[in-house]
Amino acid sequence: MNLTPDNLTAIALSMKIAVTATVISLPFGFATAWLMVFKPFRGKVLLEVLVNLPLTLPPVVIGYLLLLLLGRNGWLGGLLASVGIELVFTWKAAVIASSTVGFPLLVRSIRLGMESIDRQLLEASRSLGAPWYDTLVTVILPLSLRGMVAGSSLMFARSLGEFGATIIVAGNIPGLTQTIPLAIYDYASSPAGTSMALSLCLVSVALSVSVLFLHEVLAKKLEHGG
């Protein structure tokens, strides 16, 4: 397997983006799932629709909407530009794109974990006078770990394979924003790049298998701990 320095950079950047997107999204995903499962409020259906919307929209549409939002003419992009922060066509934009696309998978997994919690445990915690935040930290959080691991694994793997939204909002700049899928796209469009595209495909498969294997190992350890 022959990998060029640009290929190695693309692999490292893909890992960096996937890890950053997952770490940043995890607390927001946990909070969103907690609201959906344990907090009755008006407009919950609307929240569920908004959270799951990226699953139904084409990634290119998501990327274009992010470009309108984060570009210099967008209200958020203009605001950030006024304080010297540029996001579009940087690796940070790729993180935002990956977070947006993978967030529904993260929330859904955590939510399933929370929904499986025995409500009698929560009632026992409340009957002992524990405030809501104590119940959250000592009961809900530990019993949601399997869902969090599953959601994080899915989001990480989804971020590694993100293409449509990333190429719109971050571009395909070798060494700066080019990830594994974008590099494969470049090689696939050239007859001479078949072997390099295949090499990166094998790397992508190896990374995905490693993530799934790690997920299974962690899930079994958590099940044993439970």
Automatic annotation (TrEMBL):
Keyword Cell division among record annotations: no
InterPro entries: MetI-like (IPR000515), MetI-like_sf (IPR035906), ModB_ABC (IPR011867)
Keywords: Cell membrane, Membrane, Molybdenum, Transmembrane, Transmembrane helix, Transport
SUPFAM superfamilies hit by this protein: MetI-like (SSF161098)
Transmembrane regions: 12-37, 49-69, 89-107, 128-145, 196-214
Membrane-protein topology: Multi-pass membrane protein
Subcellular location: Cell membrane
Domain of life the protein comes from: Bacteria
Domain ABC transmembrane type-1 intervals: 11-213
GO molecular function: molybdate ion transmembrane transporter activity
Family according to the record: Belongs to the binding-protein-dependent transport system permease family. CysTW subfamily.
Annotated protein name in UniProt: Molybdenum transport system permease
Protein source organism: Chlorobaculum parvum
Top-level taxonomy: Bacteria, Pseudomonadati, Chlorobiota, Chlorobiia, Chlorobiales
